[in-house]
């Protein structure tokens, strides 16, 4: 069956923006005070069933699904955390899930919304970014799972990109972590105080175009995901989370790099519990895995390897290409992206400025 998209991307954008990206926010999602009380999983989906806009559960006919917390519509409470948009570039280091009697195993998924700068018009959602392997959930408790998932919230070349965190499950394997909080009606989605959710059937990442043109989400009101996420800023020196043995990149101490004799110097700190080792590359701004209007081959300004003892600082020097040196000679400042790829880990990109 085809699930009708009932929550437009422009509406979703108005629900999930949690203030300034510079705000210090470490946790988002549910406060986990109440246990989930639904018994359905991905084998069922809310669908409009009458002219009043009421939504009732019907068979989904799909193998799996993804849900996320869109937000609390119209909320101006600064302490409200029930949304899925990350506050800035960084990592999800932990997730807590409160379960009921028959929980389904969960994947933790990152999807992306794109938009223009300065408003929500022309926003496009959603695009698949990443997912974990399925994790079994113990019943009637708060499950804590350590993670190490890179996420982004930034603006490059006039394109605003921000990542959204959700959960995916398989149909017929147990209940979703959902708490009923109000009526399930498409017309109440835009009512102040409505707790809104978005969903995808099948799950995000199951369709090839999810990573290309993206997919519209459907949505409903009256469900709270009993899930809480811990987010850590990309440059936070306390970034030591993640499963044991998961390599982390070093933290970048300053966004500006001085260039002397054709070499750019970057101040790094290994905030992990083990040695930070891997590869570094300076790319033209817009490269390094960031969202751009059109995919282009990254332009490299130079690369090098790094190895820093746990808890120590070091200066990484990268010899720039002749093209980068020529451009810098003309402008004295050059916008770039520094990509750090730890051995056996996931690359993380930072916006930097080369100056002489």
Task: Summarize the structure in short.
This protein has 356 residues and is mainly beta. It has helices at residues 9-15, 322-331, and strands at 27-29, 44-48, 55-59, 64-72, 90-98, 107-116, 124-131, 142-151, 153-156, 159-170, 178-180, 195-200, 218-221, 223-225, 227-233, 251-252, 256-260, 263-269, 276-284, 300-308, 313-319, 333-342, 348-355.
Could you explain how this protein is built, in words?
The chain has about 350 residues and is mainly beta. It folds into 2 domains: about 220 residues, no CATH class; about 100 residues, Immunoglobulins (Immunoglobulin-like). Helix content is about 5%, strand content about 45%. The chain is built from 2 helices and 23 strands. Strands 16, 17, 18, 19, 20, 21, 22 and 23 form an 8-stranded mixed beta sheet that branches. Strands 4, 6, 7, 9, 10, 12 and 13 form a 7-stranded antiparallel beta sheet that branches. β6 and β7 form a beta hairpin. The longest helix is centred in the last third of the chain and has 10 residues. The radius of gyration is 22 Å and the shape is elongated. The N terminus is likely disordered.
Using the CA coordinates, give the radius of gyration: 22 Å
- Structural class designation: mainly beta
Mean pLDDT, all residues: 82
Strand content: 35-45%
Query: Termini distance?
Result: 60 Å
Sheet having the most strands: 8 strands, mixed
Count of DSSP helices? Answer: 2
User: How many beta-strand segments?
Assistant: 23
Tertiary shape: elongated
H and E order: HEEEEEEEEEEEEEEEEEEEEEHEE
Whole-number tally of structural domains? 2
Query: Residue ranges: pLDDT <50 for 5 or more in a row?
Result: 1-25, 237-245, 287-295
